[in-house]
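haha ok so turns out i had the wrong file open the whole time. this is the CORRECT one, sorry everyone. sequence first:
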Amino acid sequence: MNALSVGGHKALFVGGCVRDALLKRPVKELDIATPETPERVLTLLESAGLKAIKTGIEHGTVTAICDGISFQITTLRQDIETFGRYARVKYTHNWAKDAARRDLTLNALYCDIKGNVFDPLGGLSDLKAGRIRFVGDAQVRIKEDQLRLLRYFRFYAYYGRLPADEKALTACSQMASRIEKLSVERVWNELSRLLLAPNPASAVTLMQKHAILPYLLPEAIHCDILDRLVKLEKQTKTVPNYLRRIAVMVSLSREEACLLTKRFKFSKLDRKRFCILCDPPEWPNPKANLRQSRASFYRLGKELFTELVLIGAAKFPNDDWLALLDLSKKLSIPAFTVDGSDIVSMGIPVGPQVGKILQDVENWWINGDFKADRDDCLNYLQSIIT
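then structure:
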């Protein structure tokens, strides 16, 4: 900040870092606005011995590195013409014009190095009230960039409180069909970040009520269950997971779940996890006895067992699912010590039959409540081969 001020113009922190600092939340990205041109910013930084990178100089942005921390420094701009995600801009010395091109009022907050806040659009009062409001005309903001429609609900999930701004909701509802023009990557980026909010239920409910959710996630028909899941996550101190949170809102077969994952281009690992959460090979049973629960825990594995217990508890709150969660923390099951080589050594040729026999032995071991040791299992193996 000292380096940038040498040229005679003040520089201000802007956007998310100011917003989150005011709320005493962790600051993730450090953005600075200045009237200086990008070329002049480079000169000022280099004169101060700071590393400067031309990361987005054609758009007015330079990255400075100071003590290993990145600072995005952008010249004040005003939009001349917009093209969806992009705009033709010209540089300005007018801070109010720079603020007017931003999406939401709580993102149009500035502050100097001493912490004095510059608030040209009433963003500070909106932030304190949990009021998520577009800068200027909501429809105009969305027409300029339809991604702002989704950003509205993401920011509502993290910073908003009821009642939501009616003008914003009306504009979002009327322009919801524009979501179809966005790439699936951008849609999923916004939706997944929204779902990782401490409690996204209110934002999701608003999207459902105002006919926006069908353009994002038409499979979500049980949005009320999401709120119960979030409360269970807090109660059990479970880290939020967007796959789990989507899974409670849908009722999909394995094939239908896989279609959803392909649409959003999930990673291979997320695709596998989500499809199993929607249609698992078996469900833990809160009414089962200890022996049955131990068997289910072993077959599913601790991670999947725990995920399904949380989903089951959210979907069917009248049963004591949390007792299964407590049980899963205490269970200790020995490893199954027989493998295919044991079967081959007893004269069975390598092939599909080996796997079938191994599964038979393992099922026998499970049904015996894991009490048989290796010798017992080998004796049983010998008996079925004989």
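The chain has a mean pLDDT of 93.
again sry for the mixup
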